[in-house]
Amino acid sequence: MARGAKTGSGGMLQWLGLAFIIILVDQFTKVLILGYYHLGDSTYVTSFFNVVRAHNRGAAFSFLSDASGWQRWFFTAIGFIAAAVIIWMLRSHAGQKLFSFAMACILGGAIGNVIDRMAHGYVIDFLDFHWAGMHFPAFNVADSAITLGAICLILDELRRVRKS
Predict the structure, then answer these.
(1) Containing structural domain, residue 103
(2) 143 is catalytic
């Protein structure tokens, strides 16, 4: 099926369902972190992984986290705009499985983080990977879904280019 081909709403519903599951898992894990951890608390899990409670007022890798507060609404607006564009794309391309899977992952992650920004003014992060004393910025389920979606978009595009 061509990328621009229309499909029924049934195909779109499965992708919206996946996005909804991602949002639920993301928010559930964040509720657990908020309930059991104070800001800065950490639990050792393995030699390369801790569970922590961190607050990110910025975007990826804490970009603009030190800004005066306008970034909360800026990133919230970007999240809403991205969600609208993704829903439109899912309507148009629901039959494209890898592409739609990627879009659903990004949609679920984006909405999960928008919920945090609106409710708390920051995104709750808790997955802390580290090696040799260096820590990768903490992240969450929503960030993981966005990353998986981006990887799948790249794979989908590589596959599409290879076919043509």
Answers:
(1) 11-37+44-163
(2) yes
